Predict the 3D structure of the following.
Amino acid sequence: MNNERSTQIRLARRPVGWPVHEDFETVTVDYDAPAAGEVRVRNEFVSVDPYMRGRMNDVRSYVPPYQLGDVIAGAAVGRVVASAADALPVGTAVLHQHGWTDVIQADAAKFRAIEEVPGLPLSLRLHMLGMTGLTAYVGLTTIAGMRAGDTVFISGAAGAVGTAAGQIAKLLGAGRVIGSAGSPEKVALLTDKYGYDAAFNYKEGAVRKQLANAAPDGVDVFFDNVGGDHLEAALASMNDGGRLALCGAITAYNTTERPVGPTNLANMITRSLSMQGFTIGSHWDKLPEFTEQMSGWFGAGKIAYDETIVDGIDNSVDAFLAMMRGANTGKMLVRIGE
Amino acid sequence: MNNERSTQIRLARRPVGWPVHEDFETVTVDYDAPAAGEVRVRNEFVSVDPYMRGRMNDVRSYVPPYQLGDVIAGAAVGRVVASAADALPVGTAVLHQHGWTDVIQADAAKFRAIEEVPGLPLSLRLHMLGMTGLTAYVGLTTIAGMRAGDTVFISGAAGAVGTAAGQIAKLLGAGRVIGSAGSPEKVALLTDKYGYDAAFNYKEGAVRKQLANAAPDGVDVFFDNVGGDHLEAALASMNDGGRLALCGAITAYNTTERPVGPTNLANMITRSLSMQGFTIGSHWDKLPEFTEQMSGWFGAGKIAYDETIVDGIDNSVDAFLAMMRGANTGKMLVRIGE
């Protein structure tokens, strides 16, 4: 068990609006051999997620803000390369929340061993078989109460949560699934690969009109990753008794202006709509149910996925910014080489 | 059974913004003796309600719009004065939906006999013991899932629904009930007569700041009759897991501009909030439960109420407009004399 150098991305100052590289700093840490009870993990994939932008602000939220000097915490998968803990021998694949670093050494209790399934890459634990998939599943079931036959509209449908949500909605019996995305290529992917019944490019015209065209009989369930004009369009198209699950509002994360609220919230009353915001941290109790369902679907070859890979821990910030701008299809990941 | 003349207020044209007298017409109808199965009812009290403004517009909503030439339909209570229907003999007190008229003659099936309770005026069937009370009850229980100990904020608290909601919240065990109203007199009434723990005048300062002062530990349930800055203020003060019942948005009913939505809807996500709009028409199944509860509270002397009375069917439009401007305390009613 030799010493090893870890490269870590830390928060240097709080971003205002769109983050810039100067808001982060790259620090190296040299680890000695693990102390009793510790393990050393080399990451294979590190996740960059929209919710991280919120944690960079110093405001009350569902997860505490990052402190200046903190490593950007978040999900990552890797493998134990040195161990002083019997529970996690060298070679064990693990999931953890240590975030933007290539190597991390810490108490073994901070890592969770994950079962490796032949043919399924570890990275899936960071999206379809992990938090992202669970978010899509909980949003559709627990939050929106989706029923068979429902027309479901998913904004930001070509992203990590969206590609999961569209497929899960169809597998759970949705009558019609509609998605929005930001390029013609993504729109084509939604209908050709992900089973969406209709999709449109929100950059090509008013969302409200494009959604009305795609959902002539109205929308029963809206799964929102975007906010802004997508939420307003959904409110305009909702059927009586419709349910809106608010998962994200990426349009608002990097703006310094106060976001404009939808002008048609009165539809909440006249159409008896329900809107519920959620974050996955309150719903980990659904993980076993989700894992069983999703593993079954994977086993049956029913789940497609995409990964957009950026190589090298030094490019984490770029990967994060690209994801926030919608450059990814499916899950954006940072891959850590040897 | 002599002939009798009925005075009726009908919709003459669709209002734009605030209704004006020219949007209505007064028509007289001479009734012959009731035909078989018909009764004639002289109204004692006619209700004017905020939701009527929506029905004056020609837009899709939960109740069909009034047609031009229609009597303004709505709740009224009166007494049978001529009858050709065994089920409703002369003298029976009835509740019906024929609206803005002093005398109405129609099929007996269109009227519901109501039990008269000594000491309780018939007019209560139009508010505390009727739709208004039921609206408050359903909003707090079915929609907002109020729990004992909750801090509850009610906007437009001195109105018909608000005076009911505040008392019901306390009787159901709310920990702290806060109300907003539009005059110092109403604010005093909320705390002195209606049992509110705190109240403020929304015309005296920013709602957001006044609410934050009145609810230092945050708000668990918001019962909204107002919309606009009240909704934004509530979103700012909601505790994690808070529930918002949207009952009305009177600020928006008479504006010709597109209403501005709340700028802080993102709190729905970060605080796991639920917002549900409702109209009472979908919740009549709760009427027996509500009636039993409310009758018990009345019997125990636990319910206060106010009525703001305007005399004469010819003044219905004025009563309606005054109610929309907040001139009423408690329930606004049109009283029909002999």
About this structure: Residues 55 and 65 of chain B are 4 Å apart (CA to CA). The mean pLDDT of chain B is 94.
